Fold these 2 entries.
Entry 1:
Amino acid sequence: MDNALRLGIAGLGTVGTGVLDILKSHGGTLATRAGRPIALTAVSARTRKKDRGHDLSKVDWFDDPVALAAAPNVDVVVELIGGEAGAAKQTVETALANGKHVVTANKALLAHHGVALAKAAEAKGVSLNFEAAVAGGIPVIKTLREGLAGNAVRKVFGIMNGTCNYILTKMADEGRSFADVLAEAQRLGYAEADPTFDVGGFDTAHKLAILTSLAFGTQVNVESIAIEGIEAITLEDIRNAAELGYKIKLLGVAVAHAEGIEQRVHATLVPKGSPVSETDGVFNAVVVKGDFVGDLMLEGRGAGSHPTASAVVADVVDIARGFRLPTFGIPAARLRPYVSAPQMAHEGGFYVSLTLHDRPGAVASVARILADEQISIESIVQRGAASSETARATAPFILITHNTLEPAIRKAIARIEKDGHVVGNPRVIRIERL
Ligand code: HSE
């Protein structure tokens, strides 16, 4: 065991326990693949008493993960605490400062401090690996950093949050409420400690910022991402979209334009039958458009104990093999400064859901405003008024536009809202025709 790679795991929650499961199941195979044994020598977690189904009696226990990060019997610190600051950040910084390799699943930390941490790793000649930070078990970091090194990437997008995809899928397939399915996703270990990170789109934004840096060779920049979550999506939106030939997915999208980079996270209508639309449940899908390879889509489980642990262990094996790459594929000092594309560069179709007063001229007024703004309609659904007394005077009106520029649709909606025929707030969802 003299040449064993010694692991210290900080954080024994859903993913940490999954790592223990893999080490137990595949210890011998991993040693063969890596050319040396991988030995767990230290752990840190909030409570020692919890039964995790593993004998940890021979492993050093640290109440403080930062102390684990400095322990002499640890070569690789596996940081599974989570969060952009606090103990997670201190643990990673301490490990790197002590010349230890780091494997982390912490997307928030990398999205906010990725460049500084990459520099710290380079300064000590150690690895900072983070396959598990994006899209769970899908090897998307390896794909961008290694497999697509021969390409210029112009666009990367996908479904990167298992919790949101699970919620949207179950709402669509089973007609269940948002809150009910979110509780189930939490029970299954998909959601973040604070699930508003999932449903508010922030988790997807963290992952997108990392992919953007790898894809375009720019500094990580999460601050410039326009973020919308799925909290406002209703069962009615999902049903309307289905009727019109679409599904609703939470997408992260990054595009390299001549003027700069566009990054956005929002619920999106995608045509049924498109590959991303078929990615359901906890599955994630990442699409990369490379100039020589063409379009590539990777799909797999984006959350959960074992899929995410699978990515963590792959990073550990790379380190055991002595395989080391710059964190974001090129030396940190050569990452280009991030330049944002002008706001609202998006051009595409839009789903618009309105509640109109059920009276002559209402639809005509909406159509006139859209025509004024040069927006062409692809399809319309107008339902009869509902049966209750209060609802009788109003009618849902849903339309899909052909491709248009975002400023035009926003201007049209502002005019429609002021025109006196609409009740409540119009709902607008972007369409990606993929
Ligand atoms: N909460 C995340 C998700 C876990 O649902 O995708 C994986 O990052």
Entry 2:
Amino acid sequence: MRSKALPLLFPLFLLPMSAFSQDDVIYDEALVPAYTLPAPLLFEDGSPVRTPEDWRKRRAELLDLFAKHVYGRTPVGRPDTMRFEPRKRVEGFLGGKATLEEIRIHFSEGADGPFLDLLVVKPSQVPAGGVPTFVGLNFTGNHGVHPSPEITITESWVRARKDEIETGQVVDHRATEKSRGNQASRWPLERIVDAGAALATFYYGDIDPDYDDGFENGIHALFGKPGPDEWGSIGAWAWGASRALDCLETDPTIDKGRVAVMGHSRLGKTALWAGAQDERFAMVISNNSGCGGAALSRRRFGERVERINTSFPHWFADTFLRYNENEAALPVDQHQLVALAAPRLVYVASAVEDRWADPKGEFLAALHAAPVYELLGQKGLGTAEHPPLDTAVGDRVRYHIRSGKHDVTDYDWEQYLKAIHSL
Ligand code: GTR
């Protein structure tokens, strides 16, 4: 199918750009500016992308544009010095139905360099061919995904929210026993294992602690301070997801053809960028990823480019700053990031109360990624209408908007489990 620039006719309320300041958050569709999305199926020179072979070239062009202008280039692949150190194995986990493994992925030769601690929980009974597996990035440490004392508490620096300090879950940026299971509602291990799938999760701060320190620590310190168009934290976390997959590839009980990358919010942005770059991921899940994730930047609804670059200067490449209050100049928009998952399954999930993340913008990105899927002989969303609440739609591009707030819930997991089993 041929595509051309997509003129989208949204209510035109033309305010001069300078009238927007960081404090003028748009929560009213009438204030969304008119915009034209860059076409996924047009090369930068304006010529059409007509065949799957053309798409491979266009894909490379788009990856390069996202690297240069948004997330920064990833300067290293899999390091030669990387090694996997099994540290723990527990049979009969979760009342006998699961096996727990902890593996430390070292990125440099000595034991002092940066590492990633991977927690793998899989069903005790593994069919021939292995289990489908979610690589999920977590916010508080692997011990946060379940209260079991079998899970090792992270040694890494952790962020400290006020409530985590007050309840003694975090002391001096180190996690304590009290933080066990503090993210458990987002990681229904029993449900995942009962559905015959595995979870491989790691703490994103192992790769890069989530604060703006001029890239003195984490993986950036090992590979050198990034240049203005090199990886920020999202790029680094995405790289970590690929290294987790390197490790899983050595495990015969994992079905290599059915590994999904999954993240919520800033880690949903990360999952999209990881899946865009690393085609070994058979499925890409963006849970409430918002600005810099699945939401279209040009809509400027909820969080927008200037705000995210100001609040989190370390997440993106410095080059992304050029687009503060200047989204129309971006050579890409986020539907093209979603399209970079094609022809693999991509799942974009929104929550109705999560207006900061612009659920409609997330839906439209999924919708406008579909032409690429169709070119590759796959079905996209199957509807141009934003679906009703709690109704999953789509085929290789899936979407739902669930009731409730910015979070990961059982409803979301139910859909992700169905999706991974459809592969
Ligand atoms: C918010 C940020 C969002 C989202 C979220 C999260 O403060 O504005 O872009 O990433 O954090 O990751 O929880």
